[in-house]
Design brief:
By secondary structure, the chain is α/β, with parallel strands linked by helices. The protein folds into 2 domains: 5-298, 4-Layer Sandwich (Nitrilase/N-carbamoyl-D-aminoacid amidohydrolase); 323-640, HUPs (Rossmann fold), CATH 3.40.50. Helix 17 (549-562) crosses helix 18 (566-576). The longest helix has 25 residues, at 323-347. It is elongated, with a radius of gyration of 31 Å. Residues 6-268 form the CN hydrolase domain.
Length: 642
């Protein structure tokens, strides 16, 4: 089972200018290597059979015949290989020469694609030798004794994907042919190129490919000339690049003197999911010319070798690495602050009321309030931090809550909930020694009541602290911590929360606050609703009860962002967390995730407002509109069968 992945390759061969027989041997070798590695489709550079820098030799009959003979040789020698190859060569069409991409499989030519835009400026003079596709009326061509389809509107359909081809300058044009091919159904786009190098050009090229793959919601495989091309006036670095929906998956070593084969897997299932929900992509199909009809070419079954993923997946898809993490934290925090600022200004609220537990989520929410009030030039004393110790509160979290509020200069209120809860247990005849859901939820609802009433007293607004991961799992007490007047953390995943808190700690905090924040980051995640152990340590650890948040955030990302089925998520998680969590553990928590996600939708159906910060939100007014009565049976059945 390939789970929607298509293995592709960008080949950068060593060539000799105008030596077609030598070049054919190099291409055959790379095709064979690619096929052995399970590649289903491999593309080569522009004019790879002759080399791109032949100049006026493209007008020589001998070179044109040698190119065709070389293609015959490649067809014969790769006939038994289970792979589709895309090669570049000059092709004669009705006494003119086109710069062409030739798609072959098992001794057959599937189609020929002419280059549309021929650069004729600066160092390029292609119009001297070639005819543009815009000037070619023919729809078929005889090549190597075969009459084959010819055109820029060819779509090649395999059992796993549909792909299209464009050539070099086509990508640099205002409206690339690949845009039309994508709208007509191409999920992977291949580009045979001969891009020479210049200062700053490579970064622009990567940006161009990334943008085109994102705009087309497609995979994009780019192969450009390398070592062996003439350096009379220009140099070719050998760029093999593979992108998926804006993200680079693999790249070649630039300026290498060795041949290269850049391999990765494009997740076509992911691309299809993106296209299904992107209504703009569908609407753009209406802009296609009525007379522009694609020619669909069926291929034989391609490469049945077992899938061997070479691309890696992050254990923490919400948390980028390196410099990007700081940028992510700054942007998320800024969105939270901007959202809260607008809500405060609009409502005219005089105070922000927030429950401070000494845990990560309430800490982040408090930091958002601090930054918001500072930006609005409001006194921090108008932030009312309320610590509400209960039966499970430990000294560590209690002291951290007080220390943080005092060092940040907010108004501190301490209200124990013990006596109120004891009275409540008496009122409803609940045994205080029975630490069940009633025992726990009573405390959460008592805290929420206190916050709401203080907000009423002070003309204020209760700021919610619950995060995306908790809301996805329904790990919140209905009408308890589930409810607020504005939830600033509502689309921030748990795995990112601690990095946000640490980022704030490292950026402009005083030493006392920073020390407290770092200790909060290291504190186990807990609702602290059950009494501490005999050593006064946290006894009730959330991840022991609902599972590791790193797993749940992984499941959440691929379920909501791309609509993956449980078996695919399980495969990715098993591979990604190998050595960290075994398959039995992953399966256990995957089942819990889907069971809870479906069963707890009723809590998400009435969430308070809160800002969307990333690609995933579970707001019932925005990204996620799911009926509370939806059945999880199909998902759970698939997990059980794993």
């Amino acid at each position: 089972m390939n789970y929607g992945f298509v293995k592709v390759a960008a080949a950068v061969p060593h060539v000799k200018v105008a030596d077609c027989k030598y070049n054919a041997g190099q291409l055959e070798s790379l095709i064979a290597i690619a096929e052995g590695k399970g590649v289903q489709i491999v593309t080569f550079p522009e004019m790879c059979i002759t080399a791109y820098t032949c100049g006026d030799l493209f007008g020589q009959q001998l070179l044109l015949e040698e190119a065709e003979m070389a293609l015959i040789q490649i067809l014969n020698n790769t006939r038994q290989l289970d792979i589709i190859s895309i090669l570049g060569m000059p092709v004669v069409v009705n006494s003119t020469v086109i710069n062409a991409a030739v798609v072959i499989q098992k001794g057959k030519i599937l189609g020929v694609i002419p280059k549309t835009y021929l650069p004729n400026y600066k160092e390029f003079y292609e119009q001297r030798w070639f005819t543009s596709a815009l000037q070619v009326a023919e729809t078929s061509v005889r090549l190597c004794g075969q009459v084959v389809p010819l055109g820029t509107n060819l779509l090649f359909e395999t059992s796993d994907t549909t792909f299209g081809v464009e050539i070099c300058e086509d990508l640099w044009s205002t409206i690339p042919p690949s845009s039309t091919l994508a709208l007509q159904g191409a999920e992977i786009l291949f580009n045979l190129s001969a891009d020479d190098e210049g200062i700053g050009k490579h970064s622009y090229l990567c940006s161009l490919i990334g943008q085109q793959s994102a705009r087309c919601i497609a995979g994009y495989v780019f192969s450009s000339c390398g070592f062996g091309e003439s350096t009379t006036d220009v140099v070719f670095a050998g760029n093999g690049l593979i992108y998926e929906d804006g993200r680079q998956l693999a790249s070649s070593e630039r300026f290498s003197m060795e041949e290269q084969l850049v391999i990765s897997e494009i997740d076509v299932e992911r691309l299809r999911a993106e296209r299904r929900i992107n209504t703009t992509f569908a609407a753009c199909k209406g802009n296609l010319p009525a007379d522009r009809k694609p020619i669909r070419i069926a291929t034989e079954f391609v490469n049945s070798k077992e899938l061997n993923l070479t691309r890696n997946f992050s254990m923490h898809p919400f948390v980028p690495k390196g410099k990007a993490l700081n940028e992510r934290c700054e942007e998320v925090f800024s969105i939270q602050v901007a959202g809260l600022a607008q809500r405060l200004v609009h409502t005219g609220a005089k105070t922000a009321v927030i429950g401070i537990s000494g845990g990560l989520d309430s800490t982040l929410a408090l930091l958002v309030c601090i930054r918001t009030f500072d930006k609005l030039s409001l006194p921090r004393k108008n932030i009312i931090g309320v610590t509400m110790p209960g039966f499970g509160t430990t000294d560590r979290t209690y002291n951290n809550a007080l220390s943080l509020m005092e060092s940040l200069g907010v108004t501190v209120r301490e209200i124990s909930i013990k006596e109120a809860c004891i009275q409540h247990f008496k009122d409803i005849a609940h045994d205080i020694n029975v630490h069940d859901v009633t025992y726990e939820n009573s405390q959460a609802r008592e805290r929420t009541q206190i916050l709401m009433d203080i907000a009423n007293q002070t003309n204020g607004m209760v700021i919610g602290t619950g995060d995306l991961s908790e809301l996805a799992l329904g790990w919140a007490t209905y009408n308890g911590d589930h409810m607020s007047m504005y939830g600033v953390n509502s689309s921030v995943p748990k795995t990112l929360v601690k990095y946000l808190v640490k980022w704030v700690a490292d950026n402009g905090m005083d030493d006392t606050s920073r020390t407290t924040l770092l200790d909060i980051v290291d504190t186990p995640i807990s609702p602290e609703l059950i009494p501490a152990d005999e050593n006064g340590e946290i006894k009730q650890k959330t991840e022991d009860l609902v599972g590791p948040y790193e797993l749940h955030d992984f499941f959440l990302y691929y379920f909501m962002r791309f609509g993956f089925r449980p078996s695919k998520i399980f495969m990715l998680a098993s591979r990604t967390f190998n050595g960290v969590h075994d398959e039995e553990t992953i399966k256990k928590w995957l089942f819990i995730f889907f069971r809870r996600f479906f069963n707890q939708q009723f809590k998400r159906s009435c969430l308070p407002d809160g800002p969307k910060v990333g690609s995933i939100s579970i707001s019932p007014r925005g990204d996620w509109r799911m009926p509370s009565d939806a059945s999880s049976a199909a998902w759970l059945k698939e997990i059980e069968s794993l």
